[in-house]
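Last lecture ended with a question: if I hand you only a sequence, what can you say about the shape of the protein? Today we answer it with a concrete record. The protein is DNA repair protein RadC. Below, first the input exactly as provided, then the predicted structure, then a couple of comments.
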Amino acid sequence: MALKDLPADARPREKLLARGAAALSDTELLALLLRTGTAGRGVLNMAEDVLLRFGGLAGLLHAGSEELRKVHGLGGTAKRSELIAVLELARRAVCEQLRAREVFGSPEAVKNYLQLHLARRPHEVFAALFLDAQNRLIAMEELFRGTLTQTSVYPREVVLKSLQHHAAAVVLAHNHPSGTVQPSRADEALTQTLKAALALVDVRVLDHVIVAPGQALSMAEKGLI
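The predicted structure:
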């Protein structure tokens, strides 16, 4: 059914204005962003299909431009660019939360932030969150790409970046494109190598978070730091 054929109080835009955004389902909110469907498929059906494809809103927030381009109806630039802009706003909102307060006051926000940035990368990416003395976020940087080993992640570069940001602590992070978040022995060895190198300049390693689509593991919570 097209939106115009729905009763006025059931149309997402009118429903939002009358009852507030919280009254809308995920499908209805996404339909408002998409505005129109495709030939033979209304916008509500399209929104529902998109959410099913990505496993709900959490999965959609992790989606990249190329993944969205493959969705029927999002191959053009207009809708896709608007959706990408909204997803980026969500990422930045989480980033602002981490900048405004002590990071480990909300460990789930840290995991969500890292998932948004790294979880759906097709290759491994090693990153670091640089924190001040109050454990508030100074910056996040992606430092290395490719198969991550002790030889491809250079402790010297991590130390230099920490000094450049005047960081008091760091949270290390990388993704596993395979989908599992279990740390390998190489991950554990790399963490200890970086912890020792950063200790020489009085920078603490608070955690090493491994992410994959829909999952995140804290090595600190597992007692591996």
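Comments.
1. The radius of gyration is 21 Å.
2. Residues 147 and 207 are 20 Å apart (CA to CA).
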